[in-house]
Backbone:
């Protein structure tokens, strides 16, 4: 709002005589431009060529391998096609209707949404707690940070294979330990149980990704000025009060950005699920990415896979835009 | 945007020192704090350590007492993996794909970030937004058309380049987003001094900007390398047989020899080591890169 007001003041000052501050600000670029002349035009062309030279390789690669495949996905989604021969059998929006009416796809979408919500609901408080813990001066602090961040660097495949072995029914170490303390693990195993499989995967995702949250929150904590802590201490605030009233509110922008990354990642989840369950049992852990890879490569339903890709992209886009508009807007405004 | 103006090399150290220097009341660990830290460490390391120890046990030991320690220690599993030529082939493929990906990302990325950071021109922000929008296109969305493009149109199926080129393309957005503020933060006086000395903008790029942006390029390079090293979906669709990368090898080994739990633990543990060594060596870069991405 304030920006608009000053902008219009500047604009009016350029034509008529406006406020003094506006006039001087407007004056500088105008003077710079008139000094140029023909040499400016020549160097302008040169500048354009330089820009093209620097940007072209990246832009070319980006267009060929990112933009073009995305456009192809949209095109593919309008045809019934098994990957062989030309695209001939145009079916319009039929593939979209089939995707959106498919119980498997809707189930996968719901799973993605559960993963999005639960990842944030679990990792945010846990990550904050660990970050606050690691932010105290203590013995072995650097080592602790390294350890907590380590699973993030491992491949999802590697993490998935190890956890799969730990979770083996009966012979796995987790079931053995549970039985030793008198609990009964699910008879089909954690990953074989329709109701538990998705939550088991969510726990493993937490193990794998909590380190990212902690590292980012710690970076945010370092940005909190010490004067605030000192002032709070002088006022007799307790440790807990300081965290709640000063630290966590000041971490706001970091938390919002992290949540955004987490959300986009959860919507694309593939590797971990593919390794641990292939989306089973009976699609209980399927995600949108699992659905489209199954349709595309295993069943050669490229039209359906294309439609699912477009739907996945569209959902990610809606999430991103809504999130930017509703939640992150104040950050970017404040930063500008 | 504005917070990342310091060079990433010095910034964390300064803040670190300042934070450490602050007065003591809220610092220091009570026994409860150490206990909590201990729980976190056990939960984080437990599965990995169990896997590594499992590789030193026999399948009988694992079945007989899943929660036990190796007794006696058995080295056959690890020796078996190290003598398996496939394991080395997978490593070689992973290294080749990651190196090609990283080289392309760093070179193309810093070139693209330079005009976006230091030239004034119309459409600059629009061009930058094209790359930012790329963050929204995960490889997952385009993976089926990519599969067709690479195998049928480009004939690069089952090759290193066929995986590296699209991986580089999908890593470019985050690279440009991280590098641009980094290049913007280099002082304007450098450029003016270079111009006074008669250096062109391209000369400035080669002789001054590239050497100075070393830390930034290492950061984005490390992120691209780790991303490529861990990638699964694209290699899964594009690579087979002798061209498979390590994650594919781990996944296939664990399904082919699912009965040989100890062997799977040994294979997976050895497959983890390059990533862990690289992580420990480059930890600061990785952390800075991720933190920079969030701040930038």
Residues:
């Amino acid at each position: 709002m304030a920006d608009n007001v000053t902008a219009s003041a500047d604009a009016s000052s350029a034509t008529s005589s406006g406020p003094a501050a506006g006039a001087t600000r407007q004056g500088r670029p105008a003077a710079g431009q008139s000094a140029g002349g023909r040499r400016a035009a020549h160097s302008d062309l040169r500048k354009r060529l330089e820009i093209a030279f620097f940007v072209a390789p990246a832009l070319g690669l980006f267009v060929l391998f990112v933009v073009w495949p995305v456009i192809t996905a949209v095109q593919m989604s309008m045809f019934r096609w098994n990957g062989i021969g030309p695209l001939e059998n145009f079916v319009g929006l039929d593939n979209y209707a089939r995707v959106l009416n498919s119980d498997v796809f809707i189930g996968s979408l719901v799973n993605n949404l559960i993963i999005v919500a639960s990842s944030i609901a679990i990792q945010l408080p846990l990550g904050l707690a660990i970050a606050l813990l690691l932010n105290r001066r203590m013995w072995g602090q650097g080592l602790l940070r390294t350890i907590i961040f380590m699973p993030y660097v491992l491949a999802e495949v590697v993490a998935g294979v190890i956890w799969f072995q730990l979770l083996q029914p009966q012979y796995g170490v987790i079931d053995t330990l549970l039985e030793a303390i008198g609990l009964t693990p699910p008879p089909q195993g954690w990953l074989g149980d329709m109701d538990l499989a998705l939550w088991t995967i969510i726990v493993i995702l937490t193990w794998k990704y909590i380190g990212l949250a902690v590292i980012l929150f710690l970076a945010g904590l370092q940005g909190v000025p010490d004067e605030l802590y000192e002032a709070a201490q002088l006022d007799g605030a307790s440790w807990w009060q300081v965290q709640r009233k000063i630290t966590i509110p000041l971490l706001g922008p970091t938390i919002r950005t992290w949540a955004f990354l987490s959300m986009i990642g959860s919507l694309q989840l593939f590797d971990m699920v593919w390794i641990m369950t292939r989306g089973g049992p009976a699609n209980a852990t399927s995600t949108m990415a699992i659905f489209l890879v199954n349709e595309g490569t295993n069943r050669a339903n490229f039209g359906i896979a294309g439609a699912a890709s477009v739907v996945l992209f569209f959902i990610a886009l809606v999430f991103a835009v809504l999130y930017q508009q509703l939640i992150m807007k104040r950050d970017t405004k404040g930063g500008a | 945007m504005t917070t990342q103006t310091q060079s990433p090399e010095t910034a964390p150290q300064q803040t670190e020192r300042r934070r450490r220097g602050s007065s003591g009341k809220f610092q220091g660990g009570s026994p409860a704090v150490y206990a909590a830290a201990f729980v976190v460490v056990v939960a984080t390391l437990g599965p990995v350590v169990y896997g590594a120890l499992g590789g030193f046990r026999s399948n009988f030991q694992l079945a007989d007492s899943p929660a036990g320690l190796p007794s006696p220690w058995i080295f056959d599993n690890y020796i078996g993996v190290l003598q398996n030529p496939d394991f080395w082939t997978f490593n070689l493929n992973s290294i080749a794909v990651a190196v090609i990906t990283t080289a392309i990302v760093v070179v193309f990325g810093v070139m693209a970030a330079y005009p976006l950071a230091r030239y004034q021109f119309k459409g600059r922000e629009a061009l930058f937004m094209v790359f930012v929008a790329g963050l929204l296109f995960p490889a997952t969305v385009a993976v089926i058309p990519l599969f067709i493009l690479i195998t049928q149109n480009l004939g690069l199926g089952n090759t290193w380049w066929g995986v590296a080129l699209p991986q580089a393309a999908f890593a470019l957005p985050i690279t440009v987003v991280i590098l641009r503020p980094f290049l913007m933060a280099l002082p304007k006086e450098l450029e003016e001094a270079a111009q006074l000395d008669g250096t062109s903008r391209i000369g400035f790029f080669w002789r001054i900007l590239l050497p100075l942006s070393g830390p930034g390029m290492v950061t984005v390079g490390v992120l691209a390398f780790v991303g490529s090293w861990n990638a699964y979906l694209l290699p899964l669709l594009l690579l087979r047989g002798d061209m498979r990368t390590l994650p594919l090898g781990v996944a296939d080994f664990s399904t082919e020899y699912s009965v040989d739990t100890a062997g799977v633990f040994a294979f997976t543990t050895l497959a983890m080591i390059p990533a862990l060594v690289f992580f420990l060596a480059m930890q600061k870069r990785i952390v800075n890169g991720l933190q920079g991405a969030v701040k930038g």
